[in-house]
Amino acid sequence: MDPCRIGICHLRRQAAECYTERQSGDRASARWAGRAPSNGGVSLFYLHEVHKVIGLKEDEFEAAYRDGWMSLMADTDYARLLWYTNHAVGSGVSYNVVTITGITDGAGWADLVTRCQKGDLQSWMRDTDELRHDVVGKLLVPTHWSPMQDVDLGTVPTDGSTHTMTMYMEDTMWPYEVLDYIEACGSVYSKSLEHAEEDLFITIDLALTPALGTNVRREASLMQKIHNIDRLMWLLTNDISPEHRGPGTWMYDGLEFRDQWESKLLRTSPWSPLW
């Protein structure tokens, strides 16, 4: 058999084995159990929104989220603003802001929808719409192997205190078979990022996929924290060498599952609750 096909078949076999292991009922022994929800179900929804902000209103928009949305979510027992990020200059569409809000369950999501449509959040939503051209949102859930599953909302900062800004690479993929891709990404790609702390380049904080019926079915996204800016600069200014993109590497074998994706470089605000 062609060595390339051997590598791809191995990936598929790994994915199938891991799926069977997860389905066996013992989540604690699954390869990527992580911090699984204690009840075996989805413990947190992630409301991911991309805001096309009016250029002259960018400071007002940020203030609306820092002093408005973050505080309004802090007044609930079911939601918190988690990330507020900007596209790094020169890396994407101008004046694009990406926010992620954590919501505990479907009941919390339903209450938030009602409040925004015809309740006390309607005026905040109307005023904020005056500061942006558009907003596109989607409701996401973590994959079973995502490092972040549960978030103790009571520990999420809501006071706007400042800190060092960090960079994230957000990758969004559109696989041919999304479940196969999720399994292979967890068993191969995520493992390839594991290094000693002093040699870390990038780590996955969140691995997400759309909640059923809320967005494109065949989609997966990774929220990846960048720990070494020098290595990012090298990646942006150099070709990937043949030995790192040939058969037997994720860059090559992963193409069996997807060849279309989008990467965004995001910079957290100085007050973003998570960074």
Report the major sheet: 8 strands, antiparallel, barrel
| Average of pLDDT | 86
The span between the termini is: 46 Å
Which regions are unreliable across 5 or more consecutive residues at pLDDT < 50? 1-12, 15-40
Q: Please count the beta strands (DSSP E, at least 2 residues each).
A: 8
Strand order of the largest sheet: 1-3-2-8-5-7-6-4
The global form is globular
CATH-scheme architecture of the largest domain: 2-Layer Sandwich
| CATH fold descriptor of the largest domain | Alpha-Beta Plaits
> Roughly how much helix do the residues carry, as a percent range?
25-40%
Provide the succession of SSEs.
HEHEEHHEEHEEHHE
The structural class is alpha+beta
Q: How many domains make up the 3D coordinates?
A: 2
Based on CA atoms alone, the radius of gyration comes out at: 20 Å
- Can you identify the CATH class of the largest domain? Alpha Beta
User: Total number of helical segments?
Assistant: 7
Report the sheet-strand fraction: 15-25%
So what's the oligomer here?
Answer: single chain
Question: How would you describe this structure to a colleague?
Answer:
There is one protein chain. By secondary structure, this protein is of the alpha+beta class. α1 crosses α5 (178-192). The chain has two domains: 3-25 and 165-268, Alpha-Beta Plaits (2-Layer Sandwich); 45-155, 2-Layer Sandwich (Alpha-Beta Plaits). It is built from seven helices and eight strands; from the N terminus they run αβαββααββαββααβ. The chain has helices at 3-23, 58-74, 106-118, 122-129, 178-192, 229-237, 250-253, and strands at 45-53, 79-87, 96-103, 132-142, 167-173, 202-210, 220-226, 261-268. Mean pLDDT is 86; it is low at 1-12 and 15-40. The chain has an eight-stranded antiparallel barrel with strand order 1-3-2-8-5-7-6-4.
